[in-house]
Amino acid sequence: MRIENHPILDFGNRKTIRFYFEGKEIEGLEGDTIASALHANGVKVLGESLFKHRPRGFYCAIGNCSSCLMKVNGKSNVKTCVTMLEEGDKVEIQKDKGGLE
Amino acid sequence: MKTTDIAIVGGGPAGLCAAISAASSGARVSIIERNNSLGGQLNKQTHMFFGSEKQYAATRGIDITGILLNEIKKYEDRVEIINSTNVVGLYEDQIITLMENESKYYKMKPEAIIVATGAYEKFLSFSNNDLPGIYGAGAVQTLMNIYGVKPGKRVLMVGAGNIGLIVSYQLMQAGVKVVAIIDAAPKIGGYLVHASKVRRMGIPIYTSHTVKEAIGSSELEKAVIWQVDGNFQPIPNTETIFDVDVMCISVGLSPLNELLSMAGCEMKYVSFLSGFVPYRYSNYETTISNIFTAGDSCGIEEASSAMVEGYLAGLHAAEKIGKRHPSFEERVQDYTSQLNNLRSGPEGRHILSGINQIERRRDYA
Ligand SMILES: Cc1cc2nc3c(=O)[nH]c(=O)nc-3n(C[C@H](O)[C@H](O)[C@H](O)COP(=O)(O)OP(=O)(O)OC[C@H]3O[C@@H](n4cnc5c(N)ncnc54)[C@H](O)[C@@H]3O)c2cc1C
Ligand code: FES
Fold this sequence. Notes:
The complex is a heterodimer of chains A (about 100) and B (about 375).
Chain A: E1 16-21, E2 24-29, H1 34-40, E3 47-48, E4 55-56, E5 69-72, E6 75-79, E7 90-92
Parallel strand pairs in A: 1-7
Antiparallel strand pairs in A: 1-2, 3-4, 5-6, 5-7
Chain B: E1 2-9, H1 13-24, E2 29-32, H2 61-73, E3 79-82, E4 85-90, E5 96-100, E6 104-115, E7 119-121, E8 134-136, H3 137-145, E9 154-158, H4 162-173, E10 177-183, H5 192-200, E11 205-207, E12 209-215, E13 222-227, E14 240-243, E15 246-249, E16 253-255, H6 258-263, E17 267-270, E18 275-278, E19 280-281, E20 291-293, H7 303-320, H8 328-342, H9 346-358, E21 359-360
Parallel strand pairs in B: 1-2, 1-6, 2-3, 6-20, 8-15, 9-10, 9-15, 10-11, 19-21
Antiparallel strand pairs in B: 4-5, 5-6, 7-16, 12-13, 13-14, 17-18
């Protein structure tokens, strides 16, 4: 779900970045955060709440609310809405508090 | 430990203008911004700004950042820009803790600090309000205008203030359908120009309506709204259901200023300023010596006033540490009268009475 034609903004030709979500290879674009790349692939559920295990997506997209925490390359509690996507990233849904790596 | 004359926390319009005037006064400045680029809220405002000419009205927000950055370039020898770095601690002895790229911590000891951290979006309580697909309006704007990603297919916008109206318009520009805009107030809060623009695009605006509940198993599928009476109490049997995969919450912003509380600044809840704000003197200094603040973090207003407050805070902070601008008096007077002009309307009167509640006078006796 990328914006194709925009009357004001031009997103240019962005390089493809390959990464893994729950072990499956998918694509994002240069300049994406992890959360924006996932959203562009239709992935809205990024995690689970700690106790009731309700689905969690992002909310603020600017690093304020911690609703988008995921496990990235083995590291837990990464704010994916403000973390830039990098080639080969391994992104996983985090279902617990996570720990220190 | 790293040192500087003035550390500015937040690189939005307030922080950038503070940097310009502090640097032009001769101070060494470090701008610390948690994003990987400067500009704050301006970077996603694709619309032409309202306000007055001196604050770039009729210029798109996204272009104002460029204008301010060019200005900062003039002082390259004195201004250090620290991006992708979150300020996570601010202490009474004016030491700040920085976290670079979410991993590396270090400390800095500036002579003065200006906190210009902006705002956060308020939330609304209704059942299932935590379903993915329910996002802040600013978040949707970020997703679209910065990353080029559509939030979904069909959107319900909650809040008919300027932000709700503008983001609705921008959603339609991006090719996303907005099925309705609702607001609990009996009247549209935003400017008429914006409301007419979205109405011309065929988006209905329901005033006196609020969200009853969100429906969906793992993502938002439907939204139920209902009417409210004059006391904002819901009226049974007035429900309308929309098939939407996105709900945008745009019910206002609150000042983001935990750092000021952490440092021990005296704070007060002021509804006209939309939340907890620090007491401050007319020079934008808080109750803790050499800690200053400007922009949305000390009261929600607009980019135009955030810029002017930034210029003022920068001049004053520099003066406090002995770097007085050669035309200090004239500049302070000029910016103060710009602020008064900006605040001459009905909204401005609210802001002024809010400021009246937190502005302290110095007792020189
Ligand atoms: C949809 C929309 C439309 C608008 N339209 C207009 C308009 O037409 N005209 C107008 O005048 N105003 C408009 N505004 C309002 C305007 O954008 C804001 O009032 C203005 O950006 C406030 O400036 P600021 O510098 O105080 O905060 P911000 O622009 O929010 O900047 C704060 C910066 O601080 C950074 N930050 C926060 N915490 C930390 C930390 N701990 N460490 C490091 N960095 C941190 C943030 O990342 C951000 O970059 C609009 C706002 C929105 C959302
Ligand atoms: S969505 Fe709020 S911190 Fe990422």
